[in-house]
TrEMBL record:
PANTHER family: ASPARTYL AMINOPEPTIDASE (PTHR28570). Coiled coil: none annotated. This is M18 family aminopeptidase. Belongs to the peptidase M18 family. InterPro entries: Peptidase_M18, Peptidase_M18_dom2. GO terms for molecular function: aminopeptidase activity; metallopeptidase activity; zinc ion binding. SUPFAM superfamilies: Aminopeptidase/glucanase lid domain (SSF101821), Zn-dependent exopeptidases (SSF53187). One of its GO terms (biological process) is proteolysis. Pfam families: Peptidase_M18. Signal peptide: none annotated. It comes from the Bacteria. The lineage of its organism: Bacteria, Pseudomonadati, Pseudomonadota, Gammaproteobacteria, Oceanospirillales. GO terms for cellular component: cytoplasm. Its EC number is 3.4.11.-.
Length: 429
């Protein structure tokens, strides 16, 4: 795939994935188009060598893989890549209706470690999953996406807060409820959803029972810079890695077992049925490799690449980095290292990744957090702890992590895609 086509498809994927549910639907569609077969968790599985498969959990996590060919089998171990589908955002509360001074608003809860200031003065839409009872009494769920701007969180004018540029902090309870419009009385939000769904789908709803809905910025993904060297978008952390992993798996020739898992709930700790700390990957391993001794032997010859974006060195805040470990945008993907095991990389897994990159002449950088600052984490240490698989934490360097709009290098995204392609194809690690 050419870099220009890769970036064009990436932007389409990002724009179509405002929530983890939509991201998984996009991944599912692309895998199906590539000939992968969906398998239900509740069904028995009959697997064919060389065939691609995928299975979903909660509609917000996906595990896709290609069975090894008969000639290679599992003897070569597995090539495994992991990412996460969720991003920090504002989620609508269960009883969100607010009516103040003639304005209709919705109460929101902050999901994950979001940068809150950038959410002000943005054109916001709403998307997610709604569960309802139909007029026949059946329970059903449907994804919705308003797509157009329906809300905004206006800033308070500086005339009313002269210290805003020096010391304004955000009260998540009182400052963040978006304004949806002007009404004479409080709007019944569930009735609003019922009317919207019925007018946009051929379904008759008795009652909306619940929902998981998130606000998002409608501004589409773009390439920016004098030479279009950057990509800006919401949810680059970590839909960028999901897309890269998907594309590398789809284009991989059959050979060793190749796997991609994209988990939900990483931004809130991964402790859920569909999170990396849940049983999704372990259950798959037990199902595909039911013999315990054989499974452990194969895992000992496998590698898990935990792909999650890294902090690029910001030219305006260079002092926030270790001076020897400040990754630059468009200078290559990053190997992430932390002696306190916030990342799962060790010298051997780092060497494997670096060797793969060198073999295809792709540059690689290194990130270590400043010794006087706390370090974030990824699904890497969790997956390594749960399964015992040797793991390397890597990622594309970016700016504005956890903002409503993030920025990364165009070259870095394509570099990581090239490395994962090589990783999936290699018969010996």
């Amino acid at each position: 795939m050419q870099p220009s086509v890769f970036i064009h498809d990436l932007k389409l994927f990002l724009d179509a994935s405002p929530t983890p549910f939509h991201a998984v639907q996009q991944l599912k569609h692309r895998f199906e188009t590539a000939g992968f077969v969906e398998l239900s968790e509740s069904a028995s599985w009959v697997l064919t060598p060389g065939q691609g498969y995928f299975t979903l959990k909660n509609g917000s996590s996906i595990l896709a893989w290609r069975q090894p060919t008969e000639s290679v089998g599992f003897a070569a171990g597995m090539r495994m890549t992991g990412a996460h589908t969720d991003s920090p955002c504002l989620r609508v509360k269960p009883q969100p209706e607010m009516h103040r001074h003639g304005y209709s608003q919705l109460g929101v809860e902050v999901y994950g470690g979001a940068l809150l200031n950038p959410w002000f003065d943005r054109d916001l839409s709403l998307a997610g999953r709604v569960t309802f009872r139909t007029s026949t009494g059946a329970l059903n769920s449907q994804l919705i996406d308003f797509k157009k701007p329906i809300a905004v969180i206006p800033s308070l004018a500086i005339h009313l807060d002269r210290e805003a540029n020096a010391s304004r902090s955000i009260n998540a309870q009182t400052y963040l409820p978006p304004i949806l419009g002007q009404t004479q009385e409080k709007t019944d939000f569930r009735e609003f959803l019922k009317t919207y769904i019925e007018s946009n789908a051929s379904v008759s709803i008795d009652k909306v029972l619940d929902y998981e809905l998130s606000f998002y910025d409608v501004n589409p993904a773009n390439t920016v810079g004098l030479s279009d060297e950057f990509i800006t978008s919401a949810r680059l952390d970590n839909l960028l890695s999901c897309f890269i992993g998907m594309q590398a798996l789809i284009e991989a020739a059959p050979g060793p077992c190749q796997l991609l898992i994209c988990n939900d709930h990483e931004e809130v700790g991964s402790a859920s049925a569909c999170g990396a700390q849940g049983p999704m990957l372990s259950q798959w391993l037990e199902r595909v490799l039911p013999k315990t001794d054989e499974r452990w032997s194969i895992l000992a010859r496998s590698l898990f690449v935990s792909a999650d974006n890294a902090h690029g060195i910001h030219p305006n805040f260079a002092d926030r980095h270790d001076e020897n470990h400040g990754p630059k945008l468009n200078a290559g993907p990053v190997v992430k290292i932390n002696s306190n095991q916030r990342y799962a990389t060790n010298s051997e897994t780092s060497a494997i990744f670096r060797n793969l990159a060198e073999s295809i002449q792709v540059p690689v950088q290194c990130f270590v957090v400043r010794s006087d600052m706390a370090c974030g984490s990824t699904i890497g240490p969790i997956t390594a702890t749960e399964t015992g698989i040797a793991t390397v934490d890597v990622g594309v360097p970016q700016f504005a992590m956890h903002s409503i709009r993030e920025m990364a290098g165009v070259k870095d995204a394509f570099y990581l895609y090239q490395i994962l392609q090589s990783f999936n194809a290699t018969k010996a690690l």
